[in-house]
Design brief:
By secondary structure, the chain is mainly alpha-helical. It contains five helices and no strands. The chain has one domain.
Length: about 180
């Protein structure tokens, strides 16, 4: 219990060091990873049932070689693809938002440095240190959050493309 409290205190100190922008970045990263975990759960568990239902629906059709059947097949593949793509665009937006928020943290931190310089009238390094850390920590956090999300978005897009192709192959036309 003491370890948990100590860890939470350190996280709070870190967030205080980076200012309000760092708290916003942390919230964006948490939301991004929540959506990523939801997508991972869907891809690894829920999609199996969706795929099974679509394949069963296709093979219960007696007629699978007409123009109508081809368009029903296309609709099935499209539905599955849309289910796979759900929230991926939102995750991409959050990935792009992280470094932009980090840049905003840099600007607000530098404004703080300039305020200190205006008040003290000099370039005293100790008085500017707080603003410089407030400028660099959000930038770093935004980049780290964005990089972690980029890998997952790429993986999700690759899996979506592959599962779409697999779904197309699983629904053969009767004349094939």
């Amino acid at each position: 219990m003491i370890l948990f409290i100590e860890m939470m205190n350190r996280i709070q100190e870190f967030l205080d060091t980076g200012g309000l922008v760092l708290s916003v970045i942390a919230g964006v990263i948490c939301l991004m990873w929540l959506l990523i975990f939801e997508r991972l759960f869907f891809y690894l568990h829920s999609y199996k049932a969706v795929k099974k239902n679509i394949i069963e629906s296709w093979f219960t059709r007696t007629e699978r070689h007409s123009w109508n059947a081809e368009h029903i097949r296309i609709a099935h593949v499209s539905r599955a693809t849309e289910m796979l793509k759900t929230n991926v665009t939102l995750i991409q937006c959050l990935v792009v938002l992280c470094p932009l928020l980090g840049l905003m943290g840099t600007v607000t931190g530098m404004i703080e440095v300039f305020d200190v310089m205006a008040i003290s009238g000099s370039g005293n390094a100790r008085s500017m240190a707080s603003g410089v850390s407030r400028a660099t920590i959000p930038t770093m956090a935004g980049m780290v959050g964005s990089l972690s999300g980029v890998f997952m978005v790429t993986w999700l897009q690759r899996k979506t493309k592959r599962r779409k192709e697999q779904m197309e192959d699983s629904l053969p036309m009767a004349h094939q």
